[in-house]
Write a structure and sequence with these properties.
mainly alpha; 1 helix; 0% strand; DUF659 domain-containing protein
């Protein structure tokens, strides 16, 4: 296994996880806002 390839793969994965985390954070924020409105 090539070291640079592994580093590149890890960088791509961490970027994907970062994007997913931001999306999840937004979704959770929207849901909590809706929950407050429904109350």
């Amino acid at each position: 296994m090539n070291k640079t390839w592994a580093q590149c793969g890890c960088t791509i994965m961490s970027n994907i996880w970062k994007d997913m985390g931001q999306i999840l954070y937004k979704v959770v924020g929207e849901l909590s806002n809706m929950h407050h409105i429904l109350k």
